[in-house]
Amino acid sequence: MRLPFLFVLGTVMIDAMGIGLVLPIMPQLIVEVQGGTLASAAIWGGILSTAFATMQFLFGPVLGNLSDAYGRRRVLLVSLFVMALDYVVMAVAGSIWLLLAGRIIGGITAATHSTAAAFMADVSKPQEKAANFGLLGAAFGLGFVLGPLMGGVLGEFGTRAPFWAAAGLSAISFLLGLLVMPESVTDKNRRAFQWKRANPVGALTAIAALPGIQPLLWVYFLYSVSIYVYPAIWSYFTLERFGWSPQMIGLSLGVYGLGMAAVQGGLIRPATRYLGERVTVIWGMGFEIVSFALLAFLTNGIIALMLIPITALGAVVTPALQAMMSRATPDSQQGELQGVLTALHALSMIISPLLMTSVFAEFSRAGAMFYLPGAPFLLALVLMLIGLALFLRPLRHPA
Q1: Among the ranges given (181-185, 295-299, 378-382), the one the predictor scored with the smallest mean pLDDT
Q2: Segment 124-130 long-range contacts (CB within 8 Å, at least 24 positions apart)
Q3: For 93-128, where are the alpha helices, taking DSSP H only?
Q4: pLDDT at residue 327 above 90?
Q5: What is residue 369's DSSP assignment?
Q6: If both were cysteines, with which of 156, 209, 345, 346 could 57 make a disulfide (CB 3.0 to 4.6 Å apart)?
Q7: CA gap 312, 130 in Å, rounded
Q8: Where does residue 48 rank: exposed (0-12), middle (13-18), buried (19+ CB within 10 A)?
Q9: Cα dihedral sign for 284, 274, 9, 323?
Q10: What is the pLDDT of residue 97?
């Protein structure tokens, strides 16, 4: 199963790269096709990013349910093929509306994280699920780091170069999958496709009805909203509080992404083996709570950099929670579960930036009643505490 594993991990990495690949060149690209000022380009940039995340929210459950009915292999290969074509369209797009259509399609095809996770659930033994979900998280984290880096380097050759490179990567991954990807859905774990469950609300209702799952879904969502405080306000916070340059901000985000990838790819396996999934979640959320509390009041940038390894330790939470929920979900609903988690993750990507940047603006503006640029970390701390309290309630956890 080594080659199929590498193919699935590569697909997740390409999905993540698609999020950050366009960030370095997007302002220039929008001005190039639309004209206008940098301020108007920023507005369109926000629209394009929101469209991408919204499509992931809407179509994560759709692709998860389709993979339960028609197989993981077919969904992954079709998505990669369409993704390659979409990047070609983005590379030649001459209008803002074509760019918007490209990001909408890109958001749909990048929702295959749910199908990749369902494949991992299909082929993993119960005690291996947390570690293998951790590998998916590591691949996503690595893609999140490589995407902006690749976009910035290739952007020196023109605003379209990153899209051509991404199209090539997607095409190569499609060909590899065509050769090595087996089908993990059989008649034994196949489930008929139903439109009423192939939407976020229907899928969430079906999964939440499973014993012990509903509180864990809330914990997963609260954790996701909290943890997105980093990409949402880190650039603004570190500039306001420490006066960091763009290069320093980029370096710190890259170190954080690599730290998360290392934790989810390496630490999660011994953590769940020796502590168990439940204790791993508790410790991970505890590390995040401590990090939020310290960052909220920090005035020293060097200490903030030293905190990055501690903040990265909290990355064990997601794969451990995924494993607990996966083990409590029937084999025929693994794609549906992962689709719901993809939708919740995408929803947090929509909500958290709006929430955290608003709090930052309120507490860092001139004339603020109480000047505290780190206030968003306090909000994240409160949300994390609520999630931890839900997790510690005396309920029967699936694990």
Answers
A1: 181-185
A2: 126/327, 127/273, 129/322, 129/323, 129/326, 129/327, 130/268, 130/269, 130/272, 130/277, 130/280, 130/319, 130/320, 130/322, 130/323
A3: 96-109, 113-123
A4: no
A5: S
A6: 346
A7: 17
A8: buried
A9: negative
A10: 92
Structure tokens at 351: 């909500």
Q: In 10 A of CB 2, how many CB atoms?
A: 7
Token output for 309: 């390894």
Judge contact between 105 and 49, C-beta under 8 A.
Answer: no
The CATH homologous superfamily of the domain defined by 2-179+198-392: MFS general substrate transporter like domains (1.20.1250.20)
Length of the chain: 399
Buried b (16+ CB within 10 A) or exposed e, 18-29: bbbbbbbbbeeb
The residue to which tokens 């590569």 are assigned: 10
The more confidently predicted of residues 350 and 26 is 350
- How crowded is residue 132: how many other Cβ atoms within 10 Å of its Cβ? 25
CA distance 7 to 290: 37
d(CA 366, CA 191): 57
Q: How far is it, in rounded angstroms, from Cα 306 to Cα 309?
A: 7
User: At a CB cut-off of 8 Å and minimum separation 6, what does 182 contact?
Assistant: 4, 73
Q: Please tell me which residue, 381 or 394, carries the higher pLDDT value.
A: 381
Find tokens 């929210």 and name the residue.
Answer: 57
**What pTM value is reported for the model?**
0.77
pLDDT confidence of residue 120: 85
Residue 1: band (very low, low, confident or very high) from pLDDT cuts 50, 70, 90: low
Mean pLDDT of the chain: 85
Query: What tokens does 266 get?
Result: 């390496």
CA distances from 67 to 27, 57, 107, 345, 382 (A): 36, 16, 17, 19, 36
Phi-psi region of 266 (alpha: psi -120 to 50; beta: other; left: phi over 0): alpha
Tell me, what's the pLDDT at 294? 94
